[in-house]
């Protein structure tokens, strides 16, 4: 074999090695980024990532759950305000006591309610159509509970039945061992499913009438036409002032693995939500999450998650569900900036257009106006009534 042939063989081997090395480098460069290896556990420590897999939610009644989340393509914020309804009453922005029947002594003004307290203060004339129930004699809590309808909904609207606890001077869901001289029933006028309509109001009347017959009480229903009209006005206000913001965090170059996303989000306080591919930033015990971070649920459930590519995630804020004092949009911007720097990403709208700081400043200014409109209507963001209306 001549020297020339040896040189050709050697050159071919070098070229082949270079091609193999380049392909390996290119594959590694484009492979999904993986999370850092966790520190070694001490003996006896339980396995897992140590994160509490629980999503904070607002607790409704027996079968009332918030509606499914819908993520808007940007800031769907209305600017037009509406005059407060003439029948609005109570400190609704702080979850105050609902309207009392004429014969009922007025309950004292209360401060902000905890989630547990709010479950006993469901009805408020600001967002509910309320029907007092006049009983022939005091009704025991056991009798009231036995007569309750099997569901607490009229169509898509939650409704509730309450009794007035004379000792505590407050309305509450009927409790065993209590006796009630005054009761009331109410149905919510609007939620994200729309306004209360004639059919739903009629269903409410039938269920409450059956309850009243069982406890020997006489209901005093409000005028259906007036309540349906009030429901439409409230629904229009809610539609004009409902803001569900969502932004996309997109990888600049290499994609991310689900574990990589989870690890960086966990460093900022996010915990796994109730659904695959969803992480939430808790706002407090029993409260809706401050922010949510979601990605492809199929990637989250993959058999080989570290080999699964995630090219973008969605960072969302349900404005009406988070109190203004938490400054959730400022927190969203901090989280987005931290994740973009740590994960080599860029913040975009849903069309993939990068969002400059000026655009975010404009949204922040619009949000302040939105908060003002909600405050003026006694439906402050994060209040129990606002969370019920925007659910």
**Shape-level CATH architecture of the largest domain:** 2-Layer Sandwich
User: Proportion of β residues?
Assistant: 15-25%
How many structural domains can be distinguished in the coordinates?
2
Low-confidence stretches: 39-120
* Shape call: elongated
Oligomeric state of the chains?
Answer: single chain
Structure write-up:
This protein has about 400 residues and is α+β, with helices and mostly antiparallel strands. The chain has two domains: about 90-240, 2-Layer Sandwich (Cell Division Protein Zipa, Chain: A); about 245-390, Cell Division Protein Zipa, Chain: A (2-Layer Sandwich). Helix content is about 35%, strand content about 20%. The strands form three sheets. Strands 1, 2, 3, 4, 5 and 8 form a six-stranded antiparallel sheet that branches. Strands 10-11-12-13-9-14 form a six-stranded antiparallel sheet, with helices on one face. The chain has a two-stranded antiparallel sheet with strand order 6-7. Strand 10 (about 270) and strand 11 (about 280) form a beta hairpin. It is elongated.
Which features characterize this protein?
alpha+beta, elongated
How do the strands and helices of this protein lay out in sequence?
Blueprint: H1 3-30, H2 115-118, E1 128-140, H3 141-147, E2 153-154, E3 157-165, E4 170-172, E5 179-188, E6 190-191, E7 194-195, H4 198-215, E8 217-219, H5 224-240, E9 244-251, H6 258-266, E10 271-272, E11 278-281, E12 291-294, H7 297-300, E13 312-318, H8 328-343, E14 345-348, H9 357-376, H10 384-389
Antiparallel strand pairs: 1-5, 1-8, 2-3, 3-4, 3-5, 6-7, 9-13, 9-14, 10-11, 11-12, 12-13
């Amino acid at each position: 074999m001549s020297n020339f042939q040896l040189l050709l063989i050697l050159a071919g081997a070098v070229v082949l090695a270079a091609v193999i090395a380049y392909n390996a480098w290119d594959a590694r460069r484009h492979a999904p980024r993986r999370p850092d290896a966790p520190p070694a556990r001490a003996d006896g420590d339980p396995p897992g990532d140590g994160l509490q897999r629980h999503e904070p939610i607002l607790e409704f009644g027996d079968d009332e759950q918030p509606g499914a989340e819908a993520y808007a393509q940007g800031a769907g914020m209305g600017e037009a305000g509406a005059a407060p309804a003439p029948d609005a009453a109570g400190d609704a922005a702080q979850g105050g006591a609902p309207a009392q029947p004429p014969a009922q002594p007025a309950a004292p003004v209360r401060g902000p309610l905890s989630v547990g307290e709010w479950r006993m203060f469901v009805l408020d004339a600001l967002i509910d159509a309320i029907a007092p129930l006049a009983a022939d004699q005091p009704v025991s809590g056991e009798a009231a509970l036995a007569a309750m309808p099997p569901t607490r909904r009229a169509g898509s609207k939650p409704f509730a039945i309450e009794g007035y606890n004379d000792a505590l001077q407050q309305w509450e869901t009927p409790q065993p061992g209590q006796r009630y001289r005054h009761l009331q029933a109410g149905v919510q006028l609007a939620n994200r499913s729309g306004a209360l309509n004639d059919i739903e109001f009629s269903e409410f009347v039938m269920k409450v009438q059956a309850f009243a017959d069982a406890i020997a009480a006489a209901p005093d229903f409000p005028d259906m036409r007036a309540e349906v009209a009030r429901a439409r006005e409230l629904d229009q206000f809610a539609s004009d002032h409902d803001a569900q913001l969502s932004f996309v965090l997109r990888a600049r170059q290499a994609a991310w693995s689900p574990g990589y996303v989870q690890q960086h989000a966990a460093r900022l306080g996010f915990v796994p939500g109730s659904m695959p591919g969803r992480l939430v930033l808790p706002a407090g015990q029993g409260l809706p999450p401050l922010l949510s971070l979601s990605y492809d649920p199929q990637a989250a459930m993959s058999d080989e998650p570290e080999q699964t590519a995630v090219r973008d995630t969605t960072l969302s804020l349900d404005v009406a569900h988070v109190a203004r004092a938490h400054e959730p949009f400022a927190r969203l911007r901090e989280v987005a900036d931290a994740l973009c720097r740590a994960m080599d990403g860029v913040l975009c709208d849903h069309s993939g257009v990068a969002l400059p700081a000026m655009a975010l400043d404009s949204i922040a200014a619009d949000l302040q106006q939105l908060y003002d409109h909600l405050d003026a209507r006694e439906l402050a963001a994060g209040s129990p009534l606002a969370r019920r209306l925007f659910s």
